[in-house]
Design goal:
Bound molecules: adenosine-5'-diphosphate, 6-O-phosphono-alpha-D-glucopyranose
Oligomer: single chain
Strand content: 15-25%
CATH superfamily of the largest domain: Glycogen Phosphorylase B
Radius of gyration: 32 Å
CATH architecture of the largest domain: 3-Layer(aba) Sandwich
Strand order of the largest sheet: 5-4-1-6-7-8-11-10-9
Number of domains: 4
CATH topology of the largest domain: Rossmann fold
Shape: elongated
Number of strands: 29
Number of helices: 26
CATH class of the largest domain: Alpha Beta
Length: about 750
């Protein structure tokens, strides 16, 4: 069955959404409970998807409930009516995990407000505990075949926690806020744990390519894991990291905006405000939203353009949010003061420039506000995506008469380039953009809006979720395939049996990364006593022919393994020395090294430009090592160097090889495959062949092996000719030790 068919086959799996906040929030009204839709992009965006699917949503219902009877009553209502399963938080959880670590540490830091971030070990402990609480709850309800989709910064440890308990589960993670650049993320004392937590997922998604890039860069710098086409390999799994800009349920807004009820609301709003033009903004009251900056720009606009006095009203809708956090309280006072000051200054008997609403609005009223507006100001200082901008445009779809001023620091700016895009910190620019938005011609607005609405309709919340879920399923199908290639106990047993029965055996073993772990410098990776004893023992068995096939030079191999009784191939096969021979032999008599004088100066130049890199010179090869360099600079320079060298070596018989943090230039005719042909010439001479290697150069051996041979890649990669994987040099040694016994 093809990968595509397998993905199709799994299309109807149940999706279990997990987020801190459920799409509905419960509050107590006297003795009665009130259930209302939650506010915030995650809840409003995803709930349309949730309603269309018969899945489950696991999260906090927004209320502290201590009474167990009431808890279970509420649970049946939430499950029965909303497919929601509550996770109850205590006062202490709320204080330390929610208001504390989530909203006083991660939220400000990830939005580049690092001076607001506090680093408190007790709050971190609470964050871990609540993530564990979610993990336990999920273990109770997740069934085999479910797709688990975890959301946002409250639950970044959960993927790895779940992975530990359910190794085969399919887990996706989506971050709804920005992932900051490494320079900022590194401030976090628990940065490594957070990355490890996220890497427990199979697919990790972000709103924009920049957040994806920042995440991958932190994974490289902090966890030392490089990526290939957005794939990271950790704990023997491929983890896919990709960009999925979240959309809205566009049709719901379009339909509502044309409904009679909303049209009536729009009329009554116009009558109530009585001005020619309406400007709006809709936000949670949050310091990331740039509210004071926007108010100051509006004040300046009124000063600069007196012709708009009495003709424009700015309706500022703010919804209370995280009111227990100090910065939010201070911000509320600052906004109240600013609004008072501006209205106080410009108020006339029949006109007030700002109508300030501090509450949630029911859906139809919100849609009416969007539809009535001539201009929307969406000017956050930082915002993961910002769905308000998209909701506003969808509600403008019929007349398309409204303009949009959009901050370049909102994720949405990557998709809505036709808006008036501004720097939210530039007061003058912001002020001018208000005038520009109000004066924009009808045709211009229509042209821009039609393009943007088309995009919003096409990549809506359903296609967004479908795209994510399909990619998650594909990752799962690929992991299933890869898992089968790990050496199981059963296969291990088969190799042992085959080895025992064989009268003549050939063992082809790479050295670095296969028999010994990769070290910062090649001279540090010398064989230990145990390894030398193991190889000596294996070689002593008259049925065995043990060959070390390495990129190392002759001196190193002779010095360290010369006494072990094994055969040796050095410099990827330029040289060979069977144990019975007195000296090394060249594999090709006319190999020359006069090319080195042209190549070496280039490597020297790159070494000077890349601190930490160095050159290793072998008889017929030059290697440029960059393991100790800044990882991103190292990879960049390696690509530049490879490009420069490819031009030089084209048309010659030289080849540039990319190893693990090393570029090697050597004659193209020399490779490990050719090297082992010395032992493989009469294949039927061997009853048992085993080859083990860890990098690209070993692929030349794997490709040559006869069908009945055992080929093992040490370390996991999806790109290999080997039949099986072992995850580390320790495991490779374990295998050899068992065979030897
Ligand atoms: P964030 O997720 O940071 O709050 P978004 O713009 O992505 O920002 O999402 C905000 C969501 O909350 C939108 O779907 C918007 O409609 C809703 N919302 C914001 N303010 C109000 C309000 N006062 N009343 C009702 N809904 C609101
Ligand atoms: C943002 C976050 C969401 C959060 C929402 C509302 O959109 O990404 O995870 O739910 O704000 O915040 P609150 O703290 O009220 O859940």
């Amino acid at each position: 069955m093809s990968e595509e068919d397998k993905v199709k086959e799994t299309a109807n799996r149940r999706v279990v959404i997990v987020s801190n906040r459920l799409p509905v929030s419960v509050s107590a009204k006297g003795d009665r409970l009130k259930i209302t839709p939650s506010v915030g992009g995650l809840a409003t965006g995803l709930s349309s998807f949730h309603q269309e699917h018969d899945g489950l949503w696991v999260g906090w219902p927004g209320i502290i409930e201590k009474n167990s009877k009431k808890r279970s009553e509420l649970e049946s209502v939430l499950l029965g009516n909303y497919n929601c399963l509550p996770v109850y938080l205590s006062d202490n959880d709320l204080k330390k995990y929610y208001h504390g670590f989530s909203n006083r540490t991660i939220w400000p830091l990830f939005h580049y407000f690092s001076t607001y971030s506090t680093y408190n070990a007790t709050e971190w402990e609470s964050y871990k505990k609540v993530n564990e609480k979610f993990c336990r709850r999920l273990q109770e309800v997740v069934k085999p075949g479910d797709l688990i989709w975890i959301h946002d910064y409250h639950l970044m440890l959960l993927p790895a926690m779940l992975r530990k308990e359910m190794p085969d589960a399919t887990i996706g993670f989506f971050l709804h806020i920005p992932f900051p650049s490494f320079e900022v993320f590194r401030y976090l004392p628990w940065r490594e744990e957070i990355l490890t937590g996220m890497l427990g997922a199979d697919l990790i998604g972000f709103h924009t390519y920049d957040y994806t890039r920042h995440f991958l860069s932190s994974v490289l710098r902090i966890r030392g894991k490089d990526q290939t086409y957005g794939q990271v390999i950790a704990d023997n799994r491929i983890i896919k990291v990709d960009t999925f800009p979240m959309g809205i349920d566009a049709q719901r807004y379009i339909d509502a905006s044309t409904s009679e009820k909303v049209q009536k609301e729009v009329k009554s709003l116009h009558n109530k405000l009585g001005t020619e033009k309406i400007i709006i903004s809709v936000d949670r009251l949050d310091f990331t939203k740039g509210i004071p900056e926007r108010l100051k720009a509006f004040e300046k606009f009124l000063e600069r353009y007196p012709n708009f006095h009495g003709k424009v009203t700015y309706v500022m809708l703010l919804v209370p949010s995280r009111t227990k956090v100090r910065e939010y309280k201070l911000l509320k006072s600052e906004i109240d003061e600013l609004v008072g000051k501006i209205n106080g200054h410009f108020d006339t008997l029949d006109w007030s420039p700002i109508l300030y609403l501090y509450r949630t609005l029911p859906f139809e009223k919100l849609v009416a506000l969007y539809s009535a507006a001539d201009l929307a100001l969406v000017t956050p200082l930082r915002d993961g995506m910002n769905l308000v901008a998209k909701e506003y445009l969808a509600c403008q779809s019929t007349e398309a008469k409204g303009a949009l001023v959009l901050s370049e620091s909102a994720g949405a700016a990557a998709e809505l380039g036709e808006a008036i895009v501004v720097n939210p910190n530039d007061l003058d620019m912001l002020t001018q953009s208000i005038a520009e938005g109000l004066n924009l011609g009808a045709e211009e607005k229509k042209k821009a809006n039609v393009l943007m609405v088309e995009r919003i309709k096409k990549y809506n919340v359903f296609s967004w979720a479908e795209d994510f879920v399909n990619q998650l399923t594909l990752t799962m199908v690929r992991q299933d395939r890869d898992r089968k290639r790990f050496l199981t106990d059963q296969k291990f047993g088969e190799i042992k049996e085959h080895y025992k029965k064989a009268g003549s055996r050939l063992l082809l073993l790479d050295y670095d990364g296969t028999l010994t772990a990769i070290k910062k410098r090649p001279d540090l990776a010398v064989p230990d006593k145990e390894l030398i004893e193991l190889l000596t023992d294996l070689a002593k068995d008259p049925k065995n022919n043990v060959v070390i096939v390495s990129g190392r030079d002759r001196q190193f191999l002779s010095e360290w393994l010369g006494q072990a009784g094994v055969d040796l191939a050095a410099e990827h096969g330029a040289w060979a020395k069977k144990n019975s021979w007195l000296d090394w032999k060249l594999s090709e008599p006319d190999l020359n090294d006069n090319w080195k004088q042209n190549i070496k100066p280039i490597l020297e130049m790159f070494s000077v430009r890349t601190p930490g890199s160095f050159i290793e010179e072998k008889a017929f090869a030059l290697a440029w090592h960059y393991r100790k360099t800044d990882p991103e600079l190292g990879s960049l320079r390696a690509k530049e160097l490879a490009d420069a060298l490819h031009d030089i070596v084209s048309g010659t018989d030289l080849q540039v090889l990319q190893g693990k943090k090393v570029l090697e230039i050597k004659p193209a005719s020399i490779n490990k495959g050719k090297a082992v042909s010395l032992w493989l010439e009469q294949q039927d001479q061997w009853d048992f062949i085993l080859a083990m290697g860890d990098d690209w150069t070993d692929e030349d051996i794997f490709m040559l092996l006869p069908d009945q041979a055992w080929s093992i890649k040490v370390g996991f990669t999806p790109f290999t000719e080997a039949d099986f994987f072992l995850d580390s040099p320790e495991k490779a040694r374990e295998l050899l030790t068992t065979l030897n016994r």
